[in-house]
Amino acid sequence: MAPSVDLAMLAAPPLPEAFHPPHASAHPLHLQQLASTILHNLQHQHDWTLLSIHTHSESTGQLLPRPVISGLPPRRAYIHPDEQVATLKLEHDTGTPVKQLPEGEWVLPTHLGEKWSLKQFAAIFDALDTIPPNDEIAHEEEGSVGRQWQGNNRQKRLLLATLHDDSTIVYYIMHDGIVKPRQN
């Protein structure tokens, strides 16, 4: 007699509350599960907070090409090269470190087996606002260093989250356009 298997145990785990029910069926199930897996990794392995999965554009209400995650990392994920230079100069001049508050980030869930084109990436960037909604970090005051590279002043960017078949996830920072390289 063959061993019995409870099929309910093999089912995918339920989607997190961050996946808003009204739009839960807007994308194929595999994209929803991919976004859920990446969100789980950000929350439990990388200590991100304020995580949410978005299926529709916050500004237009249009369906996004695929689910995208927004959240707040525990530390700044990216510092613009010019901001880094200004920060180092200020720290040198004053002798005190400049506090680098984290900023809300977009995260694009992908799988290693997917083939992406520039047109597909452009469609994602076009559908997103510069900063995610509910970026609850108090931005630095008016005259602070780096203000011109933060918040709505920053260039559009996202973290490309790529899931491998062995469940490893790697993150790459992508910008919408060209960013000048860091100086060594």
Question: Would you mind describing this structure in some detail?
Answer:
This protein has 184 residues and is of the alpha+beta class. The protein has one domain (17-138, 149-175): Trna Endonuclease, Chain: A, domain 1 (3-Layer(aba) Sandwich). The protein is built from four helices and five strands. The chain has helices spanning 7-10, 29-45, 81-94, 118-127; strands at 49-56, 63-72, 105-111, 157-163, 169-175. The protein has a five-stranded mixed sheet with strand order 1-2-3-4-5, sandwiched between helices.
- The gyration radius over C-alpha positions equals 19 Å
Count of strand segments: 5
* Low-pLDDT windows of residues: 1-12, 19-24
The gross shape turns out to be globular
Strand order of the largest sheet: 1-2-3-4-5
CATH topology: Trna Endonuclease, Chain: A, domain 1
Portion in helices: 10-25%
Strand content: 15-25%
Number of domains: 1
Average per-residue pLDDT, rounded, comes to 79
Return the CATH class: Alpha Beta
The end-to-end distance, rounded to whole angstroms, is: 68 Å
Structural class assignment: alpha+beta
Biggest sheet overview = 5 strands, mixed
Looking at the overall shape, the CATH architecture is 3-Layer(aba) Sandwich
Give the ordered list of helices and strands: HHEEHEHEE
Number of helix segments?
4
Keywords: tRNA processing
Family: Belongs to the SEN15 family.
GO molecular function: nucleic acid binding; tRNA-intron lyase activity
Pfam family, one: Sen15
